[in-house]
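MODEL INPUT / OUTPUT PAIR
PAIR INDEX: 1
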Amino acid sequence: MAALGAAVWWRRNPSACPYSQRFWIEAPHPVVTRQRVLEALAPRVGERLLEVGPGTGYHSLAVAERLGPDGRLDLLDVQQEMLDHTTARAAAAGNVFGVRADAREMPFPDDSFDGAWLCVVLGEVPDQDAALAELARVVRPGGRVVVGEVMLDPHYVRYGDLIERARRVGLELEHRLGGRLGYVARLRAI
């Protein structure tokens, strides 16, 4: 009974996975794979992209490689330890930069990015509408926003809820990969 109570509390009080428990995010996700994220995000040489909540860089390094030396990958996280971990891992790429900030108030000008993504992170943000609105603001019109979710995550964002929230802030669905156990959705900034 205590476990059920803890699960309900955690679901109602979203927060980022603590750095001390990073082993949870370092495990591969069967639905939100690197390949699916790369397919949905379609990073191109020379682009500027944003990852919100990179954790320890499970997706970051593969994307940074695709951007090449003329591209740029910005990482945004509320935890300095996660940023330090990932930027240290990506140092050789030379095109990865971290900023400690909240997804609800991003320190970037409008239309700064060609695309952005967050995987198994949106449910950890206390105000998902604000985070999606910020993504719609910082991604240029026609740019892409990719959201990945896994049903086993205690902060899972249901696909229907994502689409409804996205429409309210000016993001529309382009396509979805995955099924009942999770998904990777590609949205387009209007």
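PAIR INDEX: 2
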Amino acid sequence: MKDTAASNTDLVEILTRALPYIQRFQGKTIVVKYGGNAMINSSLKEAVIRDVILLSLVGIRVAMVHGGGPEIDVMLRALGKGSRFVQGLRYTDEETMEIVQMVLCGRVNKEITAMIQAGGGRAMGLCGIDGGLLRARRLRPRGEDLGLVGEIEYVEASLLNTLLDSSVIPVISPVALGLGGDEGKSLNINADTAAAKIAVALGAEKLLLMTDVRGILRDVDDPESLVRVIPRPDLDRLKTDGVITKGMLPKADCCAFAIDGGVKRAHIIDGRLPHALLIELFTDEGIGTMIE
């Protein structure tokens, strides 16, 4: 009986500590990019879904943008088709685009949506084609041909706001509707980039990128060298100094784009840790790197 009383007291203490954060973010919009190991590990997946439902139920407007690279790779291998990457982005020919759309907009998107619904939340699964939500032109970095890979030029924010105003969680696949010479075609969009563009379009309070590392590290070989808070001007300096390199560069660029576009804060957090979203949002210490 004493142990039960103690655990109940601990629970009340946790909820009391979370209250100021709930009050601060109630009615505000956050955009979560959901990807990495948190999409593969079943217990982590369940924890993320529960976090998102809780955030929505306490009045925080949550939009989710998901990836699905590993699932796409599995399907490509099953069909005897290889994967090719150019500057970190998947080269997407027409056949690959069909597979990307099938996996992301079909299986992955609907699985996440169904999990939120089953957990007591309200969600609507969308891809960028639905309602012209995301419009994009082909991306050609430094003249490289990436095939049907796009860069978002327009987000139909009114559609998302209608859902968010009704306490519905939009679950968004990063497949966009083409513009110009690709009018009517589907274009593959990097999920981190899509999340940043959507966060700016919604005037979000926060952008949270879930990844498979602790955050930005001063020493990539030392997990304890986490940089917890980075003022926006210092982000460029860390890139110049070589602290931010390789796979962290595009994530840092997405955070910079979001902050420059009016998002209050951007976070890179470790999705391998259960309830990473709640720890980052509802504690002073947080769990990853915050750019402000």
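PAIR 2 NOTE: Residues 94-118 form the longest helix (25 residues).
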